[in-house]
Amino acid sequence: MRRKKKTTIVTYESRERMTIRHQAGRSFRWCAECGRDVWMVTPNEAASISLTDTRAIFRQVEAGKIHFLETETGELLICSKSLEGGPARPQGNSKEIQGENS
Q1: Which of 2, 36, 55, 101 has most Cβ atoms within 10 angstroms of its Cβ?
Q2: What distance lies between CA 68 and its chain's CA centroid?
Q3: CA pseudo-torsion sign 31, 90, 82, 96
Q4: pLDDT tens across the length of the chain (102 residues)
Q5: With helix as H, strand as E and coil as C, how does 25-79 read?
Q6: Whole-model pTM?
Q7: Is 54 exposed, middle or buried (0-12, 13-18, 19+ CB in 10 A)?
C-alpha cells in the first residue's frame, strides 16, 4: 500500500515601516518652485521615500521633474513635496492634471 503525499501551503503577510530621521541642518528650507518652506531631504532619503534608487532621483532632478536646491557647500537637497506628487509638481504636470479634471 502506497502512502499519500501531504502538501502544506504556507501563507505569510509582511509589513514594512520606514522612519527617516533628519540630521541637524536638515529641516524646513525655502523651495523656489513651491514658493514655500518645505522639508528638504538628501538624495538617499528621497530614494527611500520614493521606493527607488538614488540614480532615478538624479535623473528626475536633471529632467526637472522634482524640485531641488544646492547648498553653499554643494550638497544637493530634494523638496519632499515634489516627491509626493502633490501641488508642488512642476508647472507642466500641473496643467496636464488640470486639463484632465476640466
Answers
A1: 36
A2: 12
A3: positive
A4: 678 888 889 998 888 776 666 555 456 888 999 899 998 988 988 888 888 899 999 999 999 999 999 988 888 999 989 987 533 333 333 333 333 333
A5: CCCEEEECCCCEEEEEECHHHHHHHHCCCHHHHHHHHHHCCCCEEECCCCCEEEE
A6: 0.58
A7: middle
